[in-house]
Specification:
- The complex is a heterodimer of chains A (about 250) and B (about 260).
- Chain A has 10 helices and no strands.
- With about 250 residues, chain A is mostly helical.
- Chain A has one domain.
- In chain B, a hairpin with a 2-residue loop joins strand 1 and strand 2.
- Chain B has a domain of about 150 residues: Rossmann fold.
- In chain B, about 40% of the residues lie in helices and about 25% in strands.
- In chain B, strands 5-6-7-3-8-9 form a 6-stranded mixed β-sheet, with helices on both faces. Chain B has a 3-stranded antiparallel β-sheet with strand order 2-1-4, covered by helices on one side.
- Chain B contains 10 helices and 9 strands.
- Classes of the chains: A mainly alpha (about 250), B alpha/beta (about 260).
- Chains A and B meet through helix 1 and helix 4 of A and helix 3 of B.
- The structure holds adenosine-5'-triphosphate (ATP) and magnesium ion.
Chain lengths: ~250, ~260
Protein backbone atom coordinates (compact mmCIF):
# COMPACT_ATOMS: atom_id res chain seq x y z
CA UNK A 1 0.00 0.00 0.00
CA UNK A 2 2.84 2.36 0.79
CA UNK A 3 4.05 1.89 -2.79
CA UNK A 4 0.70 3.00 -4.21
CA UNK A 5 0.70 5.94 -1.80
CA UNK A 6 4.20 7.19 -2.60
CA UNK A 7 3.60 7.03 -6.35
CA UNK A 8 0.27 8.80 -5.87
CA UNK A 9 2.08 11.45 -3.86
CA UNK A 10 4.69 11.81 -6.59
CA UNK A 11 2.04 12.70 -9.18
CA UNK A 12 0.57 15.26 -6.81
CA UNK A 13 3.90 16.88 -6.06
CA UNK A 14 4.75 17.13 -9.72
CA UNK A 15 1.38 18.77 -10.37
CA UNK A 16 1.61 21.29 -7.56
CA UNK A 17 5.14 22.23 -8.60
CA UNK A 18 4.26 22.89 -12.22
CA UNK A 19 2.27 26.08 -11.75
CA UNK A 20 2.77 27.17 -15.32
CA UNK A 21 1.21 23.92 -16.49
CA UNK A 22 -1.79 24.42 -14.24
CA UNK A 23 -2.36 27.96 -15.42
CA UNK A 24 -1.68 27.07 -19.04
CA UNK A 25 -4.13 24.22 -19.05
CA UNK A 26 -6.87 26.53 -17.74
CA UNK A 27 -6.66 28.74 -20.81
CA UNK A 28 -8.45 26.26 -23.04
CA UNK A 29 -11.49 25.64 -20.81
CA UNK A 30 -11.77 29.38 -20.24
CA UNK A 31 -11.71 30.01 -23.98
CA UNK A 32 -14.43 27.42 -24.55
CA UNK A 33 -16.57 28.92 -21.82
CA UNK A 34 -16.23 32.46 -23.06
CA UNK A 35 -16.27 31.92 -26.83
CA UNK A 36 -18.83 29.12 -27.03
CA UNK A 37 -20.78 30.06 -23.94
CA UNK A 38 -21.36 33.65 -24.90
CA UNK A 39 -21.15 33.04 -28.64
CA UNK A 40 -23.81 30.35 -28.90
CA UNK A 41 -25.75 31.48 -25.84
CA UNK A 42 -28.29 33.65 -27.72
CA UNK A 43 -29.00 31.01 -30.40
CA UNK A 44 -29.34 28.29 -27.77
CA UNK A 45 -31.79 30.41 -25.80
CA UNK A 46 -33.80 31.27 -28.93
CA UNK A 47 -34.02 27.58 -29.80
CA UNK A 48 -35.63 27.02 -26.42
CA UNK A 49 -32.67 25.37 -24.72
CA UNK A 50 -32.44 27.90 -21.91
CA UNK A 51 -29.19 29.22 -20.53
CA UNK A 52 -26.30 27.75 -22.56
CA UNK A 53 -23.66 28.48 -19.92
CA UNK A 54 -25.64 26.30 -17.52
CA UNK A 55 -25.55 23.49 -20.06
CA UNK A 56 -21.99 24.02 -21.24
CA UNK A 57 -20.17 24.43 -17.90
CA UNK A 58 -20.32 20.74 -16.85
CA UNK A 59 -19.09 19.82 -20.34
CA UNK A 60 -16.12 22.11 -20.01
CA UNK A 61 -15.34 20.73 -16.55
CA UNK A 62 -15.33 17.27 -18.13
CA UNK A 63 -13.05 18.59 -20.86
CA UNK A 64 -10.54 19.82 -18.28
CA UNK A 65 -10.60 16.40 -16.67
CA UNK A 66 -10.30 14.53 -19.96
CA UNK A 67 -7.23 16.46 -21.06
CA UNK A 68 -5.45 16.41 -17.72
CA UNK A 69 -6.19 12.74 -17.16
CA UNK A 70 -5.07 11.62 -20.61
CA UNK A 71 -1.95 13.71 -20.24
CA UNK A 72 -1.20 12.20 -16.82
CA UNK A 73 -1.51 8.73 -18.25
CA UNK A 74 0.62 9.50 -21.28
CA UNK A 75 3.23 10.98 -18.93
CA UNK A 76 4.54 7.41 -18.75
CA UNK A 77 6.16 8.23 -22.09
CA UNK A 78 7.94 11.20 -20.55
CA UNK A 79 9.13 9.02 -17.72
CA UNK A 80 10.42 6.56 -20.25
CA UNK A 81 12.19 9.31 -22.18
CA UNK A 82 13.74 10.86 -19.10
CA UNK A 83 14.59 7.48 -17.63
CA UNK A 84 12.63 7.44 -14.40
CA UNK A 85 10.36 4.67 -15.67
CA UNK A 86 13.20 2.11 -15.41
CA UNK A 87 13.50 2.84 -11.72
CA UNK A 88 9.90 1.76 -11.12
CA UNK A 89 9.97 -1.14 -13.58
CA UNK A 90 12.82 -3.05 -11.93
CA UNK A 91 11.59 -2.44 -8.38
CA UNK A 92 10.60 -5.54 -6.40
CA UNK A 93 6.93 -4.58 -6.31
CA UNK A 94 4.04 -5.79 -8.47
CA UNK A 95 3.65 -3.58 -11.51
CA UNK A 96 -0.07 -3.53 -10.79
CA UNK A 97 0.72 -1.44 -7.70
CA UNK A 98 2.95 0.85 -9.72
CA UNK A 99 0.23 1.33 -12.31
CA UNK A 100 -2.41 1.88 -9.60
CA UNK A 101 -0.35 4.49 -7.79
CA UNK A 102 0.33 6.40 -10.97
CA UNK A 103 -3.27 6.17 -12.14
CA UNK A 104 -4.84 7.23 -8.86
CA UNK A 105 -2.31 10.07 -8.63
CA UNK A 106 -3.06 11.21 -12.17
CA UNK A 107 -6.79 10.93 -11.53
CA UNK A 108 -6.52 12.99 -8.34
CA UNK A 109 -4.63 15.65 -10.25
CA UNK A 110 -7.27 15.65 -13.00
CA UNK A 111 -10.05 15.94 -10.42
CA UNK A 112 -8.27 18.92 -8.86
CA UNK A 113 -7.96 20.47 -12.26
CA UNK A 114 -11.69 19.83 -12.86
CA UNK A 115 -12.44 21.55 -9.56
CA UNK A 116 -10.46 24.60 -10.60
CA UNK A 117 -12.37 24.69 -13.89
CA UNK A 118 -15.58 24.44 -11.87
CA UNK A 119 -14.54 27.56 -9.96
CA UNK A 120 -13.86 29.28 -13.29
CA UNK A 121 -17.34 28.42 -14.52
CA UNK A 122 -18.79 30.13 -11.45
CA UNK A 123 -16.90 33.22 -12.58
CA UNK A 124 -18.67 33.28 -15.96
CA UNK A 125 -22.08 32.88 -14.43
CA UNK A 126 -22.64 29.14 -13.99
CA UNK A 127 -24.93 28.39 -11.03
CA UNK A 128 -25.26 24.73 -9.97
CA UNK A 129 -28.85 24.08 -9.02
CA UNK A 130 -28.19 21.12 -6.75
CA UNK A 131 -25.57 22.34 -4.34
CA UNK A 132 -26.16 19.41 -1.99
CA UNK A 133 -25.09 17.13 -4.82
CA UNK A 134 -21.62 18.67 -5.11
CA UNK A 135 -19.99 15.59 -3.51
CA UNK A 136 -21.77 13.44 -6.10
CA UNK A 137 -20.35 15.67 -8.84
CA UNK A 138 -16.87 15.14 -7.39
CA UNK A 139 -17.41 11.37 -7.47
CA UNK A 140 -18.42 11.61 -11.13
CA UNK A 141 -15.39 13.76 -11.84
CA UNK A 142 -13.07 11.31 -10.13
CA UNK A 143 -14.53 8.29 -11.97
CA UNK A 144 -14.11 10.12 -15.27
CA UNK A 145 -10.57 11.03 -14.26
CA UNK A 146 -9.59 7.44 -13.36
CA UNK A 147 -11.09 6.19 -16.62
CA UNK A 148 -9.06 8.50 -18.83
CA UNK A 149 -5.84 8.27 -16.83
CA UNK A 150 -6.01 4.50 -17.22
CA UNK A 151 -6.73 4.92 -20.92
CA UNK A 152 -3.76 7.28 -21.26
CA UNK A 153 -1.50 4.81 -19.47
CA UNK A 154 -2.66 1.96 -21.68
CA UNK A 155 -2.03 4.05 -24.79
CA UNK A 156 1.42 5.07 -23.53
CA UNK A 157 2.33 1.46 -22.83
CA UNK A 158 1.66 0.65 -26.48
CA UNK A 159 3.28 3.71 -28.06
CA UNK A 160 6.98 3.38 -28.63
CA UNK A 161 7.85 7.03 -28.10
CA UNK A 162 6.40 10.52 -28.03
CA UNK A 163 6.03 10.71 -31.80
CA UNK A 164 2.65 9.08 -31.52
CA UNK A 165 1.41 11.63 -29.03
CA UNK A 166 0.02 14.10 -31.57
CA UNK A 167 -1.70 11.25 -33.38
CA UNK A 168 -3.42 10.19 -30.17
CA UNK A 169 -4.53 13.74 -29.49
CA UNK A 170 -6.07 14.07 -32.93
CA UNK A 171 -7.49 10.59 -33.38
CA UNK A 172 -8.56 9.77 -29.85
CA UNK A 173 -8.81 12.69 -27.45
CA UNK A 174 -10.43 15.22 -29.76
CA UNK A 175 -13.13 12.84 -31.06
CA UNK A 176 -13.79 11.64 -27.50
CA UNK A 177 -14.41 15.23 -26.51
CA UNK A 178 -16.35 16.58 -29.48
CA UNK A 179 -18.67 13.56 -29.77
CA UNK A 180 -19.50 13.34 -26.09
CA UNK A 181 -22.37 15.69 -25.49
CA UNK A 182 -20.12 18.11 -23.68
CA UNK A 183 -21.06 20.88 -26.11
CA UNK A 184 -24.55 19.89 -27.30
CA UNK A 185 -27.53 17.93 -25.98
CA UNK A 186 -27.63 14.27 -26.96
CA UNK A 187 -31.39 14.32 -27.51
CA UNK A 188 -32.55 14.40 -31.11
CA UNK A 189 -29.16 13.85 -32.73
CA UNK A 190 -28.82 12.20 -36.15
CA UNK A 191 -28.73 8.43 -35.64
CA UNK A 192 -25.06 7.91 -36.46
CA UNK A 193 -23.78 10.68 -34.21
CA UNK A 194 -26.13 9.58 -31.46
CA UNK A 195 -24.76 6.08 -31.68
CA UNK A 196 -21.16 7.23 -31.51
CA UNK A 197 -21.97 9.43 -28.53
CA UNK A 198 -23.45 6.41 -26.80
CA UNK A 199 -20.20 4.44 -27.18
CA UNK A 200 -18.06 7.37 -26.09
CA UNK A 201 -17.36 6.87 -22.37
CA UNK A 202 -16.92 10.61 -21.90
CA UNK A 203 -20.64 11.04 -22.66
CA UNK A 204 -21.42 9.28 -19.40
CA UNK A 205 -18.85 11.34 -17.50
CA UNK A 206 -20.29 14.57 -18.87
CA UNK A 207 -23.83 13.39 -18.19
CA UNK A 208 -22.96 12.33 -14.66
CA UNK A 209 -21.32 15.64 -13.81
CA UNK A 210 -24.12 17.59 -15.46
CA UNK A 211 -26.79 15.48 -13.79
CA UNK A 212 -25.20 16.01 -10.40
CA UNK A 213 -24.76 19.76 -10.83
CA UNK A 214 -27.94 20.90 -12.61
CA UNK A 215 -30.14 17.79 -12.68
CA UNK A 216 -31.92 16.37 -15.73
CA UNK A 217 -29.32 13.85 -16.94
CA UNK A 218 -29.80 12.46 -20.43
CA UNK A 219 -29.18 8.88 -19.31
CA UNK A 220 -29.59 8.51 -15.56
CA UNK A 221 -27.05 8.83 -12.80
CA UNK A 222 -27.26 5.10 -12.16
CA UNK A 223 -26.51 4.37 -15.80
CA UNK A 224 -23.70 6.92 -15.79
CA UNK A 225 -22.03 5.46 -12.72
CA UNK A 226 -22.45 1.90 -13.98
CA UNK A 227 -21.02 2.57 -17.42
CA UNK A 228 -18.14 4.58 -16.00
CA UNK A 229 -17.48 1.81 -13.46
CA UNK A 230 -17.36 -0.87 -16.13
CA UNK A 231 -15.02 1.20 -18.30
CA UNK A 232 -12.79 1.96 -15.32
CA UNK A 233 -12.51 -1.71 -14.37
CA UNK A 234 -11.81 -2.79 -17.96
CA UNK A 235 -9.24 -0.07 -18.62
CA UNK A 236 -7.45 -0.64 -15.33
CA UNK A 237 -7.18 -4.32 -16.21
CA UNK A 238 -5.99 -3.70 -19.77
CA UNK A 239 -3.73 -0.85 -18.69
CA UNK A 240 -2.00 -2.80 -15.96
CA UNK A 241 -1.56 -5.79 -18.24
CA UNK A 242 0.07 -3.66 -20.93
CA UNK A 243 2.08 -1.79 -18.32
CA UNK A 244 3.35 -5.05 -16.85
CA UNK A 245 4.67 -6.10 -20.28
CA UNK A 246 6.53 -2.85 -20.87
CA UNK A 247 10.19 -3.05 -21.85
CA UNK A 248 12.74 -0.29 -21.76
CA UNK B 1 27.36 -22.14 -7.16
CA UNK B 2 26.90 -19.37 -9.69
CA UNK B 3 24.42 -16.65 -8.90
CA UNK B 4 24.29 -15.28 -12.45
CA UNK B 5 24.65 -17.43 -15.53
CA UNK B 6 23.84 -17.22 -19.22
CA UNK B 7 24.01 -19.76 -21.99
CA UNK B 8 24.11 -18.67 -25.62
CA UNK B 9 22.16 -15.58 -24.62
CA UNK B 10 21.19 -13.55 -27.69
CA UNK B 11 19.34 -10.30 -28.21
CA UNK B 12 18.56 -8.84 -31.61
CA UNK B 13 17.09 -5.42 -32.36
CA UNK B 14 15.91 -5.91 -35.92
CA UNK B 15 19.07 -6.38 -37.95
CA UNK B 16 21.43 -5.52 -35.09
CA UNK B 17 22.58 -8.36 -32.88
CA UNK B 18 23.39 -6.53 -29.67
CA UNK B 19 24.17 -9.65 -27.64
CA UNK B 20 25.45 -12.62 -29.61
CA UNK B 21 25.44 -16.11 -28.04
CA UNK B 22 26.93 -14.93 -24.77
CA UNK B 23 27.76 -17.51 -22.08
CA UNK B 24 29.29 -16.71 -18.73
CA UNK B 25 28.82 -17.34 -15.02
CA UNK B 26 29.33 -15.16 -11.98
CA UNK B 27 29.90 -16.77 -8.60
CA UNK B 28 28.14 -15.67 -5.44
CA UNK B 29 30.11 -12.91 -3.71
CA UNK B 30 32.27 -12.22 -6.73
CA UNK B 31 33.13 -8.85 -8.27
CA UNK B 32 32.78 -9.34 -11.99
CA UNK B 33 33.45 -6.81 -14.75
CA UNK B 34 32.16 -6.52 -18.28
CA UNK B 35 34.81 -4.66 -20.22
CA UNK B 36 34.13 -3.48 -23.73
CA UNK B 37 34.00 -0.53 -26.11
CA UNK B 38 30.89 1.51 -26.93
CA UNK B 39 28.09 -0.50 -28.45
CA UNK B 40 29.60 -3.81 -27.37
CA UNK B 41 26.36 -4.99 -25.78
CA UNK B 42 27.14 -4.37 -22.11
CA UNK B 43 24.01 -2.42 -21.26
CA UNK B 44 21.81 -4.74 -23.28
CA UNK B 45 23.13 -7.72 -21.30
CA UNK B 46 22.38 -5.93 -18.05
CA UNK B 47 18.88 -5.05 -19.23
CA UNK B 48 18.26 -8.69 -20.08
CA UNK B 49 19.48 -9.84 -16.67
CA UNK B 50 17.47 -7.21 -14.84
CA UNK B 51 14.07 -8.10 -16.37
CA UNK B 52 13.88 -5.07 -18.66
CA UNK B 53 14.19 -6.87 -21.99
CA UNK B 54 13.09 -10.20 -23.38
CA UNK B 55 15.87 -12.27 -24.96
CA UNK B 56 15.70 -13.39 -28.58
CA UNK B 57 17.15 -16.79 -27.69
CA UNK B 58 19.37 -18.53 -25.18
CA UNK B 59 19.07 -19.03 -21.45
CA UNK B 60 19.81 -16.91 -18.43
CA UNK B 61 19.45 -17.29 -14.71
CA UNK B 62 19.75 -14.82 -11.85
CA UNK B 63 19.61 -16.15 -8.28
CA UNK B 64 18.07 -19.36 -9.55
CA UNK B 65 15.31 -17.76 -11.62
CA UNK B 66 14.72 -16.78 -15.21
CA UNK B 67 14.66 -12.97 -15.34
CA UNK B 68 11.98 -12.85 -18.02
CA UNK B 69 9.66 -15.62 -16.94
CA UNK B 70 10.09 -15.22 -13.19
CA UNK B 71 10.74 -11.52 -13.14
CA UNK B 72 9.11 -10.91 -9.76
CA UNK B 73 11.42 -13.37 -8.03
CA UNK B 74 14.49 -11.94 -9.75
CA UNK B 75 13.54 -8.36 -8.93
CA UNK B 76 13.65 -9.18 -5.25
CA UNK B 77 17.34 -10.09 -5.47
CA UNK B 78 19.11 -7.20 -7.13
CA UNK B 79 19.77 -3.48 -7.09
CA UNK B 80 20.92 -1.52 -10.10
CA UNK B 81 22.61 1.71 -11.04
CA UNK B 82 21.73 2.49 -14.63
CA UNK B 83 24.04 3.99 -17.19
CA UNK B 84 21.36 6.44 -18.35
CA UNK B 85 19.66 8.90 -16.03
CA UNK B 86 16.75 7.48 -14.08
CA UNK B 87 15.96 10.15 -11.50
CA UNK B 88 12.76 12.12 -11.22
CA UNK B 89 14.10 15.60 -11.85
CA UNK B 90 10.92 17.28 -10.58
CA UNK B 91 11.48 15.79 -7.12
CA UNK B 92 14.12 16.74 -4.59
CA UNK B 93 17.15 14.59 -3.87
CA UNK B 94 15.61 13.42 -0.63
CA UNK B 95 12.29 12.59 -2.26
CA UNK B 96 14.06 10.49 -4.89
CA UNK B 97 15.83 8.57 -2.15
CA UNK B 98 12.63 8.13 -0.15
CA UNK B 99 10.67 6.89 -3.14
CA UNK B 100 13.39 4.35 -3.80
CA UNK B 101 13.36 3.30 -0.15
CA UNK B 102 9.64 2.59 -0.35
CA UNK B 103 9.91 0.76 -3.68
CA UNK B 104 12.66 -1.44 -2.23
CA UNK B 105 11.02 -2.01 1.15
CA UNK B 106 13.71 -0.32 3.23
CA UNK B 107 12.10 -0.42 6.70
CA UNK B 108 10.61 2.90 7.66
CA UNK B 109 12.54 2.92 10.94
CA UNK B 110 15.95 2.91 9.29
CA UNK B 111 15.02 4.72 6.09
CA UNK B 112 15.82 8.24 7.18
CA UNK B 113 19.13 7.38 8.76
CA UNK B 114 20.20 5.32 5.72
CA UNK B 115 19.29 8.20 3.41
CA UNK B 116 21.21 10.65 5.57
CA UNK B 117 24.21 8.34 5.70
CA UNK B 118 24.37 7.86 1.94
CA UNK B 119 23.63 11.43 0.95
CA UNK B 120 26.33 12.55 3.37
CA UNK B 121 28.71 9.97 1.94
CA UNK B 122 28.16 11.32 -1.57
CA UNK B 123 28.26 14.92 -0.34
CA UNK B 124 24.69 15.71 -1.20
CA UNK B 125 23.09 16.00 2.23
CA UNK B 126 23.25 19.80 2.16
CA UNK B 127 21.38 19.77 -1.11
CA UNK B 128 18.76 17.25 -0.10
CA UNK B 129 15.85 19.68 -0.50
CA UNK B 130 16.93 20.94 -3.93
CA UNK B 131 15.05 19.76 -6.98
CA UNK B 132 17.18 17.36 -9.00
CA UNK B 133 16.68 19.45 -12.14
CA UNK B 134 18.87 22.08 -10.46
CA UNK B 135 21.74 19.60 -10.06
CA UNK B 136 24.88 19.42 -12.19
CA UNK B 137 25.52 16.27 -14.20
CA UNK B 138 28.01 14.96 -11.65
CA UNK B 139 25.66 15.65 -8.76
CA UNK B 140 22.89 13.74 -10.50
CA UNK B 141 25.27 10.85 -11.00
CA UNK B 142 26.24 10.87 -7.33
CA UNK B 143 22.58 10.83 -6.38
CA UNK B 144 21.98 7.82 -8.61
CA UNK B 145 24.78 6.04 -6.81
CA UNK B 146 23.51 6.99 -3.37
CA UNK B 147 20.09 5.72 -4.37
CA UNK B 148 21.44 2.47 -5.76
CA UNK B 149 23.20 1.74 -2.47
CA UNK B 150 20.22 2.55 -0.27
CA UNK B 151 19.06 -1.01 0.13
CA UNK B 152 21.31 -4.04 0.42
CA UNK B 153 20.47 -6.53 -2.30
CA UNK B 154 22.42 -9.74 -2.81
CA UNK B 155 23.40 -8.68 -6.34
CA UNK B 156 24.34 -5.19 -7.49
CA UNK B 157 24.33 -4.37 -11.20
CA UNK B 158 26.33 -1.25 -11.97
CA UNK B 159 26.28 -0.03 -15.55
CA UNK B 160 29.29 2.27 -15.96
CA UNK B 161 28.75 3.58 -12.46
CA UNK B 162 31.69 5.98 -12.45
CA UNK B 163 30.83 7.68 -15.74
CA UNK B 164 31.16 11.41 -15.23
CA UNK B 165 32.42 11.22 -11.66
CA UNK B 166 35.54 12.98 -10.45
CA UNK B 167 38.43 10.64 -9.53
CA UNK B 168 38.03 11.22 -5.82
CA UNK B 169 34.36 10.21 -5.80
CA UNK B 170 35.23 7.22 -7.97
CA UNK B 171 37.73 5.93 -5.44
CA UNK B 172 35.34 6.64 -2.61
CA UNK B 173 32.61 4.67 -4.26
CA UNK B 174 34.79 1.69 -5.07
CA UNK B 175 36.12 1.38 -1.55
CA UNK B 176 32.56 1.48 -0.27
CA UNK B 177 31.60 -1.30 -2.70
CA UNK B 178 34.64 -3.44 -1.89
CA UNK B 179 33.80 -3.10 1.76
CA UNK B 180 30.18 -4.05 1.11
CA UNK B 181 31.36 -7.03 -0.91
CA UNK B 182 33.65 -8.17 1.90
CA UNK B 183 31.12 -7.61 4.68
CA UNK B 184 27.90 -8.84 3.09
CA UNK B 185 29.16 -10.98 0.21
CA UNK B 186 27.26 -8.80 -2.22
CA UNK B 187 27.83 -9.96 -5.77
CA UNK B 188 28.88 -7.00 -7.90
CA UNK B 189 28.43 -7.08 -11.67
CA UNK B 190 29.71 -3.91 -13.29
CA UNK B 191 30.48 -2.66 -16.77
CA UNK B 192 33.20 -0.23 -17.59
CA UNK B 193 35.47 0.95 -20.29
CA UNK B 194 38.12 2.07 -17.80
CA UNK B 195 40.96 -0.45 -17.89
CA UNK B 196 42.37 0.52 -14.51
CA UNK B 197 38.99 0.12 -12.89
CA UNK B 198 38.48 -3.35 -14.30
CA UNK B 199 41.96 -4.41 -13.29
CA UNK B 200 41.91 -2.90 -9.82
CA UNK B 201 38.39 -3.81 -8.76
CA UNK B 202 37.27 -6.95 -10.54
CA UNK B 203 38.21 -10.46 -9.54
CA UNK B 204 37.18 -11.65 -12.98
CA UNK B 205 36.64 -9.85 -16.26
CA UNK B 206 34.76 -10.73 -19.41
CA UNK B 207 35.90 -8.82 -22.48
CA UNK B 208 32.98 -8.20 -24.80
CA UNK B 209 33.09 -6.81 -28.31
CA UNK B 210 30.37 -6.69 -30.99
CA UNK B 211 28.04 -8.62 -28.70
CA UNK B 212 30.46 -11.52 -28.25
CA UNK B 213 32.58 -12.46 -25.30
CA UNK B 214 36.11 -12.69 -26.66
CA UNK B 215 37.82 -13.73 -23.41
CA UNK B 216 37.16 -14.12 -19.73
CA UNK B 217 39.23 -14.70 -16.63
CA UNK B 218 41.10 -12.87 -13.90
CA UNK B 219 43.20 -9.88 -15.03
CA UNK B 220 46.28 -12.12 -14.64
CA UNK B 221 44.77 -14.88 -16.74
CA UNK B 222 43.80 -12.47 -19.48
CA UNK B 223 47.38 -11.19 -19.66
CA UNK B 224 48.73 -14.73 -19.69
CA UNK B 225 46.26 -15.86 -22.37
CA UNK B 226 47.34 -13.02 -24.64
CA UNK B 227 50.98 -13.03 -23.62
CA UNK B 228 50.90 -9.36 -22.71
CA UNK B 229 52.16 -7.19 -19.87
CA UNK B 230 49.13 -5.04 -19.20
CA UNK B 231 45.38 -5.36 -19.45
CA UNK B 232 45.54 -2.56 -21.99
CA UNK B 233 47.69 -4.65 -24.30
CA UNK B 234 45.61 -7.73 -23.61
CA UNK B 235 42.53 -5.81 -24.66
CA UNK B 236 44.25 -4.64 -27.83
CA UNK B 237 45.29 -8.19 -28.62
CA UNK B 238 41.77 -9.48 -28.04
CA UNK B 239 39.72 -6.86 -29.86
CA UNK B 240 42.18 -5.21 -32.19
CA UNK B 241 41.46 -1.81 -30.66
CA UNK B 242 42.29 0.28 -27.65
CA UNK B 243 39.94 1.90 -25.23
CA UNK B 244 42.15 4.68 -24.04
CA UNK B 245 41.39 6.84 -21.07
CA UNK B 246 41.54 10.04 -23.12
CA UNK B 247 39.16 8.65 -25.68
CA UNK B 248 36.84 7.45 -23.03
CA UNK B 249 37.03 10.71 -21.16
CA UNK B 250 36.15 12.95 -24.06
CA UNK B 251 33.39 10.56 -24.94
CA UNK B 252 32.15 10.82 -21.39
CA UNK B 253 32.06 14.54 -21.74
CA UNK B 254 30.01 14.27 -24.89
CA UNK B 255 27.63 11.92 -23.17
CA UNK B 256 27.33 14.08 -20.11
CA UNK B 257 26.56 17.01 -22.36
CA UNK B 258 23.96 15.01 -24.19
CA UNK B 259 22.46 14.20 -20.86
CA UNK B 260 22.41 17.81 -19.80
CA UNK B 261 20.67 18.82 -23.00
CA UNK B 262 18.16 16.08 -22.72
CA UNK B 263 17.58 16.51 -19.01
CA UNK B 264 14.90 18.89 -17.84
N1 LIG C 1 16.55 -0.29 -27.93
C1 LIG C 1 17.42 -0.52 -28.92
N2 LIG C 1 17.01 -0.55 -30.20
C2 LIG C 1 17.88 -0.80 -31.20
N3 LIG C 1 19.18 -1.03 -31.03
C3 LIG C 1 19.66 -1.00 -29.79
C4 LIG C 1 18.81 -0.74 -28.66
N4 LIG C 1 19.57 -0.80 -27.54
C5 LIG C 1 20.82 -1.06 -27.95
N5 LIG C 1 20.90 -1.20 -29.29
C6 LIG C 1 22.09 -1.51 -30.07
O1 LIG C 1 22.71 -2.63 -29.50
C7 LIG C 1 24.13 -2.50 -29.51
C8 LIG C 1 24.68 -2.65 -28.11
O2 LIG C 1 24.26 -1.56 -27.31
P1 LIG C 1 24.57 -1.45 -25.75
O3 LIG C 1 23.86 -0.25 -25.25
O4 LIG C 1 24.29 -2.73 -25.11
O5 LIG C 1 26.15 -1.18 -25.78
P2 LIG C 1 27.13 -0.85 -24.57
O6 LIG C 1 28.17 -1.90 -24.56
O7 LIG C 1 26.37 -0.63 -23.32
O8 LIG C 1 27.81 0.49 -25.07
P3 LIG C 1 28.20 1.82 -24.27
O9 LIG C 1 29.59 1.65 -23.79
O10 LIG C 1 28.12 2.86 -25.32
O11 LIG C 1 27.21 2.01 -23.18
C9 LIG C 1 24.41 -1.16 -30.15
O12 LIG C 1 24.72 -1.37 -31.49
C10 LIG C 1 23.11 -0.41 -30.03
O13 LIG C 1 22.95 0.47 -31.11
MG1 LIG D 1 26.11 0.86 -22.06
Amino acid sequence: MEVVYILWLRQLKRYVRSRSRIVGSLAQPLLFLVALGFGFGPIYARAGGGNYIQFLAPGVIAMGILFTAMFSGIEVLWDRQFGFLKETLVAPVPRLQVMLGRTLGGATVATLQGTIVFLLTLGVGFRPTHVVQLPLAVVMMFLTAVLFTALGTAVAAVLEDMQGFQLIMNLLVMPLFFLSGALFPLAGLPRAIGLVARIDPLSYGVDGIRGALIGAPHFSLVVDVSVLGVFVAALLAVGSYLFSRMQV
Amino acid sequence: MSIISTEELTKKFGEVTAVDHVSFAVERGEIFAFLGPNGAGKSTTIKLLTTLLTPTSGRMEVAGHDPWRESAAVRRTFGIIFQDPSLDTELTAYENMELHGVLYHVPRASRRSRIEELLTFLELWDRRTSLVKEFSGGMKRRLEIARGLLHHPSILFLDEPTLGLDPQTRNHMWSYLKDLNAREHTTVFFTTHYMDEAERIAQRIAVIDHGRIVAQGSPGELKRQTNTQSLEEAFLALTGKTIREEGATSLDQLRMQGRLWRGR
